[in-house]
């Protein structure tokens, strides 16, 4: 029985790898030097909503392998600041500050706040930790395939992103967060609307149509 299970998993893994490398966006990312296909989700949102601007301060949650940070730093430029966080290691990116660890842990959170203060104080009139223009989160849980387990985990990560955003966003700042439609989605959407002036849903073309994945873009943090 164990041999049969290993065989099944092996076939499933092989099929996933085939689908992955046959993916148009994967091929395009490799050709254009991006670290993941997810960059095309952010680029499409950027084209439509102009959320990344020169000299801004951006936080990228769940950043590894670094695709979104690559895009963010290309728009904010050297006068901007991109801080990437992940529990996984990430290869360096020019003009991107990386913090490895769980941002819900006090030591990691303190490192983030100190970095914001040290990098932004005295540079452009923004002071303290509440200097962030946009928090981005492409975080997702390890998928078990059981919706009753996966959905609460994904909404929990979205809640964590919102809580961090409330701590670091400047007034009128924004939040871009990945969520999965299902239990808890409507309540989370309402919570965002209570904190921001405008909330919209985006489903980029690079987000697979069969996936319940969408992105919520919240603008105009009420602070």
Can you describe this structure?
- A 7-stranded mixed β-sheet has the order 3-2-1-4-5-7-6, sandwiched between helices.
- The radius of gyration is 18 Å and the shape is globular.
- Mean pLDDT is 88; it is low at 1-8, 15-21 and 122-126.
- Helices cover 44% and strands 22% of the residues.
- By secondary structure, it is of the alpha/beta class.
- The chain is built from 7 helices and 7 strands.
- It has helices at 2-22, 24-32, 39-49, 67-76, 106-120, 147-168, 185-195; strands spanning 57-61, 81-86, 96-100, 132-137, 169-180, 196-202, 213-221.
- The protein has a single domain, classed as Vaccinia Virus protein VP39 (Rossmann fold), CATH 3.40.50.
Q: Helical percent range?
A: 40-55%
Number of strands: 7
Q: What's the number of domains?
A: 1
| pLDDT averaged over residues | 88
CATH architecture: 3-Layer(aba) Sandwich
- Going by CATH, the homologous superfamily would be Vaccinia Virus protein VP39
The biggest beta sheet, please? Answer: 7 strands, mixed
CATH C-level name: Alpha Beta
Please state roughly what percent of the residues sit in beta strands, choosing from under 5%, 5-15%, 15-25%, 25-35%, 35-45% or over 45%.
Answer: 15-25%
Shape: globular
